[in-house]
Every structure is written in C-alpha cells, then in structure tokens.
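In the design runs reported in the main text, the only information available to the sequence generator was the tokenized backbone. The following block is the verbatim input for one such run; it is reproduced so that readers can re-run the procedure and compare outputs position by position.
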C-alpha cells in the first residue's frame, strides 16, 4: 500500500511539474508580439516598391487591402517612400495602386478609403521637423532647437533644412500613418536598397524600437523579407541589427 501511495504521489508531482512547464511555454508564446497582417503588408509594399518589382507589388497591395489597410494608408506608404528611394519608384508604386484599385472595383470590391491627413499648421517647419525627430528618438521637445555643428548637416545646411522641413515636418506630421508605421516603411526600403546605407538602417532600426516595435517583430521582418524578397538582403539587415544592438 505504501509503495502504491508513493507511486501516486510521484506521478502527481510529475504531472504538476509538466503542467507548470506547459503553462510557462504558453505564457512565453502569448507574450511574444508578432507583426499584424497590416504591418506585414506595409513591409512588403515598401520593399517591392523600392526594388521596382511591380508584379509582386500588386500582390502585396492586394494583400494589404485585404488585411484592412485603407486606400489612403496604402497611398501614404507609397508617398513616404519617395524620400528614400526617389520619385520614379514612388510614382510607379502609386500607378500600380491605381491599377489594383481599378481591378478590385471591377470585381465588386469596395475598399475603405480611410481618413485624410489632418491639416498641418506649423509656421516654422524646421522647428516642427526637429521636434518630430526628437519625438522619434524619445528625446525632450521643449529645449532649444539645435542645428548641426559637424557632419553632413554642417557641411550642407541645405540638406539639413530639407531633411527637417520636408521629411520630418511635411511627411512625418501627416497622421494617416503612425510614427511606428512610417518607421516600418523606412527600414523596409533601406533593407531593399542594401549595401551602402547601413548607417541609416542602423539609425532607423533604433528609432523603430523607440516606437514600440519589438526585437521579435523586427526579426520577423527579416524572416518575411528572406521568404518573400531576398535572403541576402535579410542576412545583411540581420548583421546591421546585431551590430546596432551591441552598441546600445
């Protein structure tokens, strides 16, 4: 009888331990944040636009609209991209979106236009852009506006002004996309551009994490790009990300 009871106790203890491990594994899985279908669409739309792969861009745009990305959000991603991969790629992306919308409408699909950007009333664009950049980096915005005293910004004050007044004021102030969605767009196009823009990619990976995109989600972006676009691009981005994390 004693042996039988001891066996039952041991079996019960093992069951409790096993259940504890299962509960812990479920907890870890549930706490791991993953990209939404909408975020995945933003990544692929940005990447294929930068690559100029219009056939795959059509697929990504359709997938984005199916995952409830609005027409204006899709359009805004493509507009944002011109600051990183130029007007030709951006305009071809917009032309592809027009084609996709026409085809979907012909099939009886009525996509949600979404809301327009709120009016922007910044009287001093440079200051507004500086503050948006400070917000992106998690820095205070109520201090004195700082102008660069070294590097490319000091060497070319014009490009610094264009960067602050246009990219970070005109574009980042448009609230059709969140800062996090704009950073997802930005890192995706920089990964697609590849060699030669590693410092910019590292900087924007850090800014992306400041917007609440987790390490797991960024690593998921690399997996998505590896499967859908290019393994070499994904591996190069992983290296930049690893080096950025080691410095921070």
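Verbatim output:
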């Amino acid at each position: 009888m004693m042996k039988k009871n001891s066996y039952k106790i041991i079996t019960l203890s093992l069951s409790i331990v096993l259940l504890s491990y299962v509960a812990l594994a479920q907890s870890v899985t549930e706490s791991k944040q993953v990209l939404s279908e909408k975020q995945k669409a933003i990544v692929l739309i940005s990447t294929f636009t930068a690559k100029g792969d219009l056939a795959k861009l059509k697929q990504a745009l359709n997938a984005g609209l199916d995952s409830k990305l609005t027409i204006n959000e899709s359009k805004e991603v493509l507009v944002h991209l011109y600051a990183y991969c130029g007007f030709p790629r951006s305009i071809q992306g917009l032309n592809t979106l027009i084609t996709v919308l026409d085809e979907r409408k012909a099939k009886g699909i009525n996509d949600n236009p979404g809301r327009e950007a709120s009016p922007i009333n910044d009287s001093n664009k440079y200051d507004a852009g500086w503050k948006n950049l400070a917000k992106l980096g998690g820095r205070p915005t109520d201090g004195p506006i700082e102008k660069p005293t070294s590097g490319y910004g000091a060497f070319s004050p014009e490009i610094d002004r264009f960067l602050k007044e246009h990219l970070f004021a005109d574009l980042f102030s448009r609230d059709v996309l969140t800062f996090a969605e704009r950073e997802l767009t930005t890192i995706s196009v920089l990964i697609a551009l590849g060699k030669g823009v590693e410092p910019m990619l590292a900087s924007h990976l850090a800014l992306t994490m400041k917007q609440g995109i987790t390490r797991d989600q960024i690593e998921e972006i690399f997996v998505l790009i590896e499967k859908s676009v290019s393994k070499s691009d994904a591996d190069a981005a992983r290296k930049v990300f690893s080096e950025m994390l080691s410095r921070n």
